Amino acid sequence: MKSDPLDRLIKHARSAPPSDDDREVTAPMGFATRVVALAREQAGAASWSTFLERKAWRALGLAGGIAVMSVAFNLSAVSESIDQQVLEADDPITALWDLS
Helices 5-15 & 31-45, crossing angle to 10 degrees? Predict the structure, then answer.
């Protein structure tokens, strides 16, 4: 199992020997935020599944838009066809429903 680079870095930092001097050492402002942002960016950019997932969602949205436009453009023709088929049918139940 391949370990995450951030996990390996944390493991090595925890195993480091303590410093001998008593002075406090701090990271510059925003350092932790930049490190986490870069780690997440590299993890997401290298993944093919993330790339394919983004493309799949875009394709799904495009297909849905095309389907909605197709229904909107052809709705009148479909309703006319259904009305014509109902009128041509010799079904007594349909005739009763049309009278009411």
Answer: 140
User: At residue 3, what is the residue type?
Assistant: S
**pTM of the full predicted structure?**
0.40
What is the rounded distance in angstroms from the CA atom of residue 72 to the CA atom of residue 78?
Answer: 10
In angstroms, rounded to a whole number, what is the distance separating the alpha carbons of residues 24 and 14? 17
Alpha carbon separation from 75 to 28, 68, 70, 82, 95 (Å, rounded): 63, 10, 8, 11, 24
Per-residue pLDDT of the chain (100 residues; tens, 9 = 90+): 467 788 888 888 888 877 777 677 788 888 888 888 888 877 655 677 777 888 999 999 999 999 999 999 988 888 888 777 766 766 777 667 766 5
